[in-house]
Amino acid sequence: MSQALVIVAHGSHLNPDSSAPTFDHADTIRASGAFDEVREAFWKEEPSFREVLRTVEAEEVFVVPLFVSEGYFTEQVIPRELRLEGWDVDEWDSDGTSASHVTLRASDVDKTVHYCGPVGTHDAMSDVIVRRAQSVTGDPDVGPGFGLAVVGHGTERNENSAKAIHYHAERIRAMDRFDEVEALFMDEDPEVDDVTDYLESDDVVVVPLFVADGFHTQEDIPEDMGITDDYREGYDVPAAVDGTRIWYAGAVGTEALTADVIVERARDAGADVRDSAERVRERTGDVAGD
Questions:
Q1: What is the rounded CA–CA span in Å between residue 1 and residue 58?
Q2: pTM of the model
Q3: Which of 65, 107, 183, 278 has its CA at a distance of 20 to 30 angstroms from the CA of residue 30?
Q4: What is the C-alpha to C-alpha distance for residues 46 and 169, in angstroms, rounded to an integer?
Q5: 205 and 247 in contact (C-beta within 8 Å)?
């Protein structure tokens, strides 16, 4: 049976860079031959969630949300727009970070849909955060002597938003690679504005757990941390703040290794990717192939 991968993401009417990581990761996976078809779909751009299944010829479809956390979009908007029959969020049986997949029908297009949990809560995303730290410092052995801040948006409207950040901070802390690891936020405590109060290391890597670079990662966070007074003037990497060297990485979702996490999500749901998954890893570097 032929199989398709559909990567669904938010997109933006205002930020043309918002969809770039989605297209980049789709291209990487498409080139690997892991799926007969690879499609992208967006909430705020075309092609839309509502129409994407009509563009797929395969009978079996793996839908992977390129979102950071479980919540309104993964639990309500995407299932509704894809017209997934019988969707019930309880079938994910998730604690807020453990959604894996559920198999449903989209009868109006006569397809079996394996609806997966978001990329941002997959265990392998911890490794992508570490890779982001390696990329921004240019040091494959980065860790000793460094602190790491994993930064999320945070919102009281969705407790799962913070859960994903704490989840990965705890997993990376358990690796015992960095001197210290903290979860920080834009809109709730502890706030990224006070990064040098929460981490004592002379060098601190700051990795935002965001899918794409946009207003928050390119403007708000740099100004909040004090690595620039005006985002339009740019900032140094590293930049000195209160005697601490801040290595600001930008959105983790732009890291090429994220494509491997997308494939892992689909494989967890039963996608037959085998050798093709290895070809994705050859292009991005191994992350989850256990």
A1: 8
A2: 0.93
A3: 107
A4: 34
A5: yes
DSSP string, 233-257: G---SSEEETTEEEEE---GGGSTT
Burial 172-209 (b: 16+ CB within 10 A, else e): bbeeebbbebbbbbbbeeebbbebbebbebebbbbbbb
In angstroms, what CA-CA distances link 212 with 15, 25, 50, 273?
A: 10, 12, 22, 26
CA atoms within 13 A on the CB side of 272: 5
Residue with tokens 């240019």: 138
Interval 171-185: pLDDT, tens: 999 999 999 999 999
Token pair, residue 187, equals 């809109």
CB 133 within 8 A of CB 148: yes
**Is-contact 238 198, C-beta < 8 A?**
no
**Is 110 in a helix, a strand, or coil?**
coil
Can you name the residues that pair with 116 across neighbouring β-strands? 101
CB 261 within 8 A of CB 287: yes
For the chain, helix, strand, coil in percent to 5 are 40, 20, 40
The whole-angstrom separation of Cα 166 and Cα 187 is 15
- C-alpha angle with apex 140: 134 to 145, nearest 5 degrees? 75
